[in-house]
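Supplementary Text 2. Reproducibility record for the structural model of the 150-residue chain.

All settings were left at their defaults, and a single model was retained for analysis rather than an ensemble. We include the record here because the model underlies the residue-level annotations in Supplementary Table 4.
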Amino acid sequence: MNLLNKTIACFDSAALRLVSKEELEKRDRDLKNEDPNSALGRAIYEAYDSVDTKATAILQHVSIMIAVTGVLYSWTSIALLRLLFGIETLLYVSLAVFCLRLFMVQNHSESLSDTENAVMREALLDITAKLTFFVSVVLIGTVIIELVLR
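Retained model, structure tokens:
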């Protein structure tokens, strides 16, 4: 269990490196100033809720794309395309793992503040969404190549 916690903490620290110190400070101010009548904890909870909603949508897309790439992998007979579909499947599985980390609200990195935990999740969501878009565009290109070669 300790190994898993350390692994998650390393993953979180790596995700937090995607955010500059200025962005982190700005987000901290934004969370504190979001609602003058509410505590910082409520603003952070709302940030987590927003991340959870968006991660759910991404995970749904990724799950469907894992199935699609699996079917395409089994249909193609061209070795290079099988390799591409296999790589795309692994990328989608990795994105699914990113989404699962986003759902782990109960597991905070103890070395990070509440704001840093929220910002880390927002940064991870941002990179996950961008990578999902990129891998989906690559998949479309691979399918077009498959159709042209048939």
